Batch of 4 targets.
Target 1
Amino acid sequence: MLRTITSKSPSLIQDRLSLVSKHFFPAAFSDKDISIHRELWDALLVFTKAFPESWTMTADKKPTMALFSKFLKSAGYGSATITYRSILPLVASWGDESVLGKNGTGFPFIKDFFDSFWKGLENPNIDKEPGSTALFMEAYVECLVYFIVRFG
């Protein structure tokens, strides 16, 4: 539903962006039912592309990036195929402030992002799908190259 509203009537969400973000991100990054992760990631990518500023909003006093870090550490709760193929498009939708922060350095966030990402490799969830480790490595390297190219 969120994907459809974002695509068809973004003004409905824009007026309530803080409220929607406050509820959507915690639900998206804590959902362990991998059977719905394809639809969830589809909605997440459409939503964050339309509203990149949603990343800088706080969800229940916890920054959205912290929720995403926890999701990465858990290896996407076992949905490696869809999760790791979606990370680069998600990262590409982040605005500079989301990555670099207000001080413009970005170091703590970028370090935390890659540390959390790598911890997913140690999580038992990584082995729930065949080929997960290869997908993980591909996504990790893609993001590493992306950050180097984007922020030099």
Note: DSSP finds nine helices and two strands in the chain.
Target 2
Amino acid sequence: MTDQNFERGESYDWAEHETSNKKMRDAASEAFDKAADTARDAGKKAKHAAADAASTMTDHVMGILNEQLAAGADAVGVFASSMRHAADDLDEESPALASLVRGFAHTVDNYSDNLEGKTVEELTKTASDFTRRQPAIVFGMAAIAGFFAFRTYKNAQSVSSPPIQPSHHHPTDESHG
């Protein structure tokens, strides 16, 4: 068949074939580049949207934590006030104990004043700074808390609960006749 094409004088145009192939390659490369750019843009937009969502969520959670911190500071202030009332009640019967309770109330009130108006970030920084300055106290408090948690857990396990199923009591002194 190829001989016939040569006999007729028809020849295959390789230059046209190469031009056609180059056009197809260029079109495919351009389409691939556009698809890659679109995917890259979509990835950037998704990453930006995720970062915005995480930032919004973080801000929301921090707002809730700051509200809880303020409520906790108020509760500590109320507790200090209750301690002062208890000290007033103790004045007549035990002035020394009343004085001790007032001292605790004053300390608790100072603690409440220090918490009031602080953010979670500030409280975290303060705790971190204290831990750096006084690591022995922090580790000692952690050990005591762990000891009490262990004792509480151990005592909770030793308390037995009543059986769920009723027991069937069959008296042995009855005779079936």
Note: Residues 119-155 form one domain.
Target 3
Amino acid sequence: MKNIRYIPVLFAFTLAIYILTNIFSNDKAYSSKNIKGVNIGDKAPDISMKNQNDSIITLSSIKGKLVLIDFWASWCYPCRKENPAVVAAYKKYKDVQFKKIKTKGFAIFSVSLDKDKTAWKNAIAKDNLIWAYHVSDLKFWNNAAAVVYGVNSIPANFLIGKDGIVIAKDLRGAYLENKLEELKNK
């Protein structure tokens, strides 16, 4: 008989969980129905977002090169640890002729999931991210590009060929270097 008095509490708790689950599953930013993601072989959706100086930059503005779309954030420790490898790859391959895919040049299009503009700008400087393409809408995990690309953890990246097709994804450290070397040689 003592356990009977807990039934209303248990019912209320279960009802609250059900209601909260439905609220967030119907929210466009959180609904899995709206997060298809981008996979190898897909056409990379264009990204149009402000850079750190508030100018609009688009991914399509660098079409024709091999492009790494790199999702990261200043607060992300694994991202910051990965940045030296990304910088090294950029320095080594930015002017290379990629024989396998018949294109010259390697660019990086960095998409930050930051919400603090100052922290983002400071991290770009501190990590020596010397390429020209840095964008963010400062919406944290609700970053428009991250939602479209289906990014649910960072660091994450997508390697895009000159035709705008995703040819690889989630290349870190030596895997990025190896893929770029493979594309360089015929």
Note: The beta strands are 48-50, 56-58, 66-72, 97-98, 103-104, 106-112, 133-135, 156-160, 166-169.
Target 4
Amino acid sequence: MSSAAGDGHPARGPRRSALDARIAAFDRRVDDALEPWRERRAVGAVFRFASRIGDFSVVWQLIGLIVGLAVDHRVRHTAWFVGLIAAESLIVNQGVKRLFRRNRPTTTGDARFQVRRPSTSSFPSGHSSASFFAATLLTAWVGWPSAPIWYAVAVVVASSRAFVRIHHPSDVVAGAAFGLAVGLATLALGAGQLLGA
């Protein structure tokens, strides 16, 4: 991914330039749609909180501990879940992001919302990827009826990153798709058995 034209990157072919333009247009439309909601104090508080608890996948680690120790009652399953979340985060933040090095829309987020300043590049969103990865594993672990709960939390945490302007909306969409795909692949490779699913 690239930032806006004129950012010092070498010239791109017409297909890549057209794709970049479409992505930039999508990001602007979503950002404009979010702006009226940013002015609502209660909504801003919810998304700021969601963004903060998504740091380092804290919300998913806590949910995993609660499910593992209070519902499943298997320490081994809990440890596998926590380990898989950590592994996915490492792959995205220290692997995938290094391939793209996309600039963030802001370096510290919207001034109206105090959030942690990330040290990695923008694409894809790590919060978004981790959220959909965790929601996919939790659905397999706890059962399909619980899926709406986990994916609802994932949507809020993921979208919070565009809301506070620390990610482009397209980063969030790509992160969600990546996390979902990796989650399904992980289950196909036998992670469900590790979780006792």
Note: The two ends are 37 Å apart (CA to CA).
